[in-house]
Amino acid sequence: xxxxxxxxxxxxxxxxxxxxxxxxxxxxxxxxxxxxxxxxxxxxxxxxxxxxxxxxxxxxxxxxxxxxxxxxxxxxxxxxxxxxxxxxxxxxxxxxxxxxxxxxxxxxxxxxxxxxxxxxxxxxxxxxxxxxxxxxxxxxxxxxxxxxxxxxxxxxxxxxxxxxxxxxxxxxxxxxxxxxxxxxxxxxxxxxxxxxxxxxxxxxxxxxxxxxxxxxxxxxxxxxxxxxxxxxxxxxxxx
Length: 239
Fold this sequence. Notes:
Number of strands: 7
Strand content: 15-25%
Helix content: 40-55%
Number of helices: 7
Radius of gyration: 19 Å
Distance between the termini: 40 Å
Shape: elongated
Largest sheet: 5 strands, antiparallel
Strand order of the largest sheet: 3-2-1-4-5
Structural class: alpha+beta
């Protein structure tokens, strides 16, 4: 059958084989066996399956088969800048690492796949101002799709975001996982951020990193730990 997928993570399995983790339209999370080494075939496959590449291949999924073969591998949608622009390339690595952590199980989810494919295409065509805020916009909207978005209807002026409950409240909770008044207002503002307007949100590097830390902590509380992302420190230094 033909599979359409988004490449997430390549891990060396042996001297001759690499395991590619991906998210497919047809099956959800999948793993493929790729050739390792320095030959032309291996180099071509690595170029086609860089983080967030949009790929189509033929495969033969069977019950109990955890690692799939792949053949007739082509780009399903060519990407002009994603893997040539260093900033976009770093964001792609970060987003792919997040998705590899988040999309651990479950079958096909066409709505999720379409959201991810659209996001990849937006990043590929983004200008510098859009690129700077892409990861923030992506993470917030990913949380919305996963069903963990804070309840924005509970926000009122001066309220505090309880990170554990995902609600705003007028008094601080007994635990320490909550945001101060200014950060809580910013968290509410993020609910209005879309890929179409993300360039209108102006943050300096310190603010952008603080927002990123808050979103990753929220994911860690409500979905899966984000405390071991290898690409995070490099991303911080670039944006």
